[in-house]
Amino acid sequence: MKMRTTILPLLFILLVGCDDIQLNNPYSDNEGKQTVLYQSFSERPKHLDPATSYSENEYAFIAQIYEPLFQYHYLKRPYQLTPLTATELPEIIYRDAQGKVLAKNTSEQDIAYTDYVINIKSDIHYQPHPALAKDANGKYIYHQLTPDQVQAYNTLSDFKEVGTRELTAGDYIQQIKRLAHPKIQSPIAEIMKNYIVGFDDFSKQVKQLKKTDITALSMAGLEIINPYQYRIRIKGKYPQFIYWLSMPFFSPMPWEADVFYEQAGLADKNITLDWYPIGTGPYLLAENNPNRRMILQKNPNFHLETYPAEGEPEDQAKGLLADAGKKLPFIDKVVFMLEKETIPYWTKFLQGYYDASGIASDSFDQAIQFTGTGGIALTESMQEKGVQLQTSVETSIFYMGFNMLDTTVGGDSERARKLRQAIAIAVDYEEYISIFRNGRGVVAQGAIPPGIFGYAEGREGNNFYSFDWQNNKAQRKKIAEAQKLMQEAGYPNGVDPTTKEPLILYFDTAAVSTDDRPTMNWYRKQFEKLGIKLVIRATDYNRFQEKMRSGNEQIFVWGWNADYPDPENFFFLLYGPNAKVKFGGENAVNYQSAEFDKLFEKMRNMDNTPERFQIIQQMQEVVRHDSPWIFGLHPKNFSLYHSWFGNLKPNLMANNRLKYTKLDIHSRTEKRKAWNYPVLMPIVIGLIIISLIALLTFYRRQMKKASK
Amino acid sequence: MIQYIIRRFLYAIPLLIGVNILTFVLFFVVNSPDDMARMQLGQKRVTEQSINNWKQQHGYNLPLLWNAEAQDQEKVTQTIFYQKSVGLFLFRFGVSDSGRNIGADIQERMWPSLALALPTLVLGLIVDISLALMMVLYRNSYIERTGLVLCVVLLSISSLFYIIGGQFIFAKVLKWVPISGYDDGFSAIKFLLLPIIIGVFSGSGSGVRWYRTLFLEEVEKDYVRTARAKGLTETQALFKHVLPNALIPILTGVVVILPLLFMGSLIMESFFSIPGLGSYTLDAINSQDFAIVRSMVFLGSVLYVFGLLLTDISYTWVDPRVRLS
């Protein structure tokens, strides 16, 4: 009893006395003086090998670790490439079939090959890594492990010795050879076969060989000129190739990495190159436990790179150039925590335990409010916390596609075209964005999203087949005009003359969950405006893909996210020779237009000139007229950042943005303390009740004793 | 006893083969090797050649169950089923379709699952049995009636409600514990407190009612009446006689699920970001990773068979009259 009465008040004093107590702090590590950024991820990355990785959630990690030759300028717009490990943009040499050098202005059909001569910077070193560890005699320590030795290692950090070496041109060549190796299964191998000279032959040559055998073999289109210079030869002219060179696929890979990781037994411990990267970038992967957290630590060997000194005119006023010339990166450590559910994710952001957050539908109203003028602003509670909102229109498009092989909605007949145009008017994507995306999207007027060369703003970019231009803005045409088109198409009031019943169309989708029902009902209602009965054919994803491949779909919704900021990367989705059914390409609607294809072939390899811009507008016009797509929407990205997070500018092409950002950790510490002080009143009340019960019991016992 | 155990293990072999075949058939009815390849290779720029390449690299270019073109025993051995299933019986789970060693993944992820599930089970048992005994002790009183109503209320509410409500009250409003996360060693305690309490609380409705039924059945038996006649108090009769005799059905329920605790809890682990095995199978189904699906189903079956065997053995321990033969 005595002990209890002593401990309880002590506990209370302890809790109340500590004014910086944060019982809900999810981080146990002592940060010390390190600047640590806390972020989350919801899905474990499948691949961290730059040869195989091809998704956004994987790039969030590997783009901070691996360094391709070029990168997108962090601040300048429109997006432009700048050298990263290269000394300058590549020298491009056109050659004829005999290898003779051609003039820069040679027409495309005369160019047989293009050489990219690339110079890389010296004194760039790899992160400390056991694959590069050498003993005093210069022999690699971990390249010939015995089975017994392998047994002693469970993670990469168990290898005590690490080493480094300078980056050379050969490492870039090594990676291109890796892309060609069938065992590595690079998703771009099939594309590169069409471009890099000797890629296909090399792929066949090494098919039965080990990954480590490729180092000694050569590929016809690749040549190391000296340790800091190499050449890639591609077939014909392909200006977009430089964008590929800026993607992680073309990051350098030391030959030692494959030799190290391919040793027997290591893969059984999950010690693979796909799991433990080795790069020259600003960060290295210090902990890889994707079931819980992944930690990036500043690479001690990172070469000198400074914050950009140039940007857009308004960047100076926004303070985005204040760190110009300062050494990168600013953040010492980045902790990515696995967070599958949106409720804890959002709560942790509000508590200051995550430095940035997206906005899920559940929490949208807590974060964003619409102003009287239709604009958007942060809610008062967010403003009180000093949260910053950043919005950007993604370089993506979601469209509704008509299968052009279908007998009702497809083909180039006047009847089918008018039917498609009528539907394009009826499907009100403004309403869709408002209902289903909380206003997070921009109605698409063509195939190209904003930010990509060829995108025209205002009246020039308006789709006059679905919209009028009134009061300086696009106004969807009245439904009567769509009904008129239906009549002209031979479907008055949506009635099919052959059946005398409402026209039945089929919408194929993989959206089978109950959450998708409101969306499907909305689509039905849009078609009902024209008297059309829309039948939803929902199947699982595999069957849906099968329908798409065999051309058994009629109407569907599909999307595309830019690989690189070039209109070719969107228009190729409508190019005839890319038709899905006939050629297995990405033209999912199987659109075939001789006029469009001719314009595409002319446009794709042009430089960004006014002439190219005009051709793009012609292409937009052809597609708008033929309507194989209803240009749905370009998603708008809303991101929230705490006040202590700095140097933020949306950049949808650059994946290596982390190195530019900075944190004010003192401000974060103070705010976290203020926001997370535990509410102790229930404990106090509980303690009082327990004490009262104890006192009452004690009193009753004493009374009983006294009465005896 | 030893003979019995050996016999049970031998019975398990055809059972496991059957489960394996069933899993295989069910999986490949829904997913073809081409679908699996597409899922692994992503949605962009996937060609027929890259699909064929993937299938070849992962051994999915063989026929499913019967290779008509092969010779002799290779008609059976040169099939996806044989190549992917035989290793399981030696507990060689192999590599997942995304390239990870499954055995290593299971070893790594089963401990957090256990750290959550074991205390939840033990505490849940203590709480449920204690409350059930209390209700039996005060049977036919307002305490029992109120308890019963509360139990019905508790078991009528979805566990998701307890999770979200618990997170809202204790992590968001009161700020007593982190809302989610995990850490190694003793640092894990602060992350496990809330999910364990919620686990115990949400399971107590059904648990208390179930144990109360067991105890009530025992409490009316002759030996309890004899104990009371001997002059034992109701409490003594309950703890000395009723509880030990009610242990057999309790053990049946508990021991059989003991091995399955390794498999984790999907919802709990997902909401509290506990890096356990709970979501491993579901993630694998979503990503059409057959290697993981078959391994986890096989492991689940083995653990269930093992759990049943443990139950039988535990009977002999609780009730000396039971003999295994």
CATH homologous superfamily label of the largest domain in chain A: Dipeptide-binding Protein, Domain 3
Q: Which CATH architecture of the largest domain in chain A would you pick?
A: Roll
What sequence of helices (H) and strands (E) makes up the elements of chain B? HHHHHHHHHHHHHHH
* Structural class label of chain A: alpha+beta
The overall pLDDT of chain B, averaged over residues, is 88
Describe the structure in your own words.
The complex is a heterodimer of chains A (708) and B (325). With 708 residues, chain A is of the alpha+beta class. Chain A has 3 domains: 2-21 and 678-707; 50-263, Dipeptide-binding Protein, domain 1 (Alpha-Beta Complex); 396-637, Dipeptide-binding Protein, Domain 3 (Dipeptide-binding Protein, domain 3, Roll), CATH 3.10.105. Chain A has 22 helices and 27 strands. In chain A, the strands form 9 sheets. In chain A, strands 12, 15, 16, 17, 24 and 25 form a 6-stranded antiparallel beta sheet that branches. In chain A, strands 5-4-6-8-7 form a 5-stranded antiparallel beta sheet, covered by helices on one side. In chain A, a hairpin with a 2-residue loop joins strand 7 (222-226) and strand 8 (229-235). Chain A is globular. The mean pLDDT of chain A is 93. Chain B has 325 residues and is mainly α. In chain B, 70% of the residues lie in helices and 0% in strands. Chain B has 15 helices and no strands. In chain B, helix 1 packs antiparallel against helix 15 (290-318) and helix 14 runs antiparallel to helix 15 (290-318).
Quick structural gist:
With 708 residues, chain A is α+β, with helices and mostly antiparallel strands.
Task: Summarize the helices and strands and which ones pair or pack.
The complex is a heterodimer of chains A (708) and B (325).
Chain A: H1 2-17, E1 36-41, H2 56-65, E2 70-72, E3 81-83, E4 91-95, E5 101-102, E6 113-119, H3 147-151, H4 169-180, H5 189-193, H6 199-205, E7 222-226, E8 229-235, H7 241-245, H8 255-261, E9 283-289, E10 293-298, E11 333-338, H9 342-350, E12 356-358, H10 364-367, E13 368-370, E14 376-378, H11 380-385, E15 388-393, E16 396-402, H12 414-426, H13 429-436, E17 441-443, E18 467-470, E19 473-476, H14 479-488, E20 495-496, E21 501-502, E22 504-509, H15 517-528, E23 533-538, H16 541-550, E24 555-561, H17 568-571, H18 580-583, H19 594-603, H20 610-626, E25 629-641, E26 645-646, E27 662-663, H21 665-675, H22 681-707
Parallel strand pairs in A: 1-11, 22-23
Antiparallel strand pairs in A: 2-3, 4-5, 4-6, 6-8, 7-8, 9-10, 10-11, 12-25, 13-14, 15-25, 16-24, 16-25, 17-25, 18-19, 20-21, 26-27
Chain B: H1 2-30, H2 33-41, H3 48-58, H4 74-77, H5 80-85, H6 102-137, H7 142-156, H8 159-173, H9 189-219, H10 222-229, H11 234-245, H12 247-257, H13 266-271, H14 280-286, H15 290-318
Helix pairs in contact in B: 1-15, 2-3, 6-9, 7-9, 8-9, 10-11, 12-15, 14-15
